[in-house]
């Protein structure tokens, strides 16, 4: 997160103490053209900024300049662009010629403000510092920027009800037009989420579906299909005894991935972790202590798979000669560890982009009723962590 002092210093401000009072809400930071805005970091962060403008490059004309050069009113320019009112072909041709020549671009944000819309959308994630949710956030921000929406990113601290209430209130008061929500631990929606969805407020679920909210559009990955492909890969290598280090029991992604791998290993032992490296390490440590025999490990995400590999190494078990290990997500570390991790690649950036796209489509249409859920394809990536089952 960018600090207030760094913003102020960048813009040439010295009075940072007065520029950022402790309890400010949404403020314009300064008059410098580089800054869009800033939100109180104690609650949530914003929004974004643009690159510094090259003063030497020509600036696009304003609507007022186009109107003056064309000898018409700004209303006539507006009607030419919108097509809502008839404009003579000669006048329209003159206006469009000036627009093409001098680069006027209609300000979608200004149009929204004039119509009473905030031009802002929200993203609620369990932990913005996590690689996984950070990729979703980047995708949402990219799509929001393409459609001239501002973005407020809200960290819910793993669905803390008090934090959720504050952020959902932004939706109730129309401070934001719509919300993209990512679940963290449980399949059951919180009271706040149930309440806000019942009010027909514009919401899209990103990455995880939520039970009881089937009418709320979601963007997910084909989790079962990806895990099924990993299971077949391990079977083809001769493995018959596998253990599953699953994620939180209440998440759709956990349920779907376990179901997919169990099509090949119906008797697999299932233990649950929290998607972090240490939990993968700890679960394998417990299974080894219990004397559970296995030749393959399925980690419900790459981090737990990496933790499992570390514990196997400490136990003197070679990957993949003694035990094959697979993960899910294809995070950066999966391709650089030794051996490289066989996994399923899902596109978190695209999940973020498509979630924002669905939300914006619903907002522009005035209703989310026609917005359909999306399940994105995945791809198995075979690396060195899987091999034929040891014989003898």
Going by helix content, strand content and strand pairing, the class is alpha/beta
CATH topology of the domain at 223-346: Rossmann fold
Strand content: 5-15%
* Strands ordered across the widest β-sheet: 2-1-3-4-5-11
CATH architecture of the domain at 223-346: 3-Layer(aba) Sandwich
Approximate helicity band = 25-40%
Tell me the name of the CATH homologous superfamily of the domain at 223-346: Response regulator
Note the overall shape: elongated
Q: How many helices? A: 14
The sequence of SSEs as H and E is HHHHHHEHEHEHEEHEHEHEHEEHEE
Question: CATH top level of the domain at 223-346?
Answer: Alpha Beta
Task: Report the sheet with the most strands, covering strand number, pairing sense and barrel closure.
Answer: 6 strands, parallel
Could you give the count of β-strands? 12
Distance between the termini: 55 Å
Q: What kind of assembly state do the chains in view correspond to?
A: single chain
Sequence stretches where pLDDT stays below 50 over 5 or more residues: 1-55
Average pLDDT across residues? 81
Rounded to the nearest angstrom, the radius of gyration is 26 Å
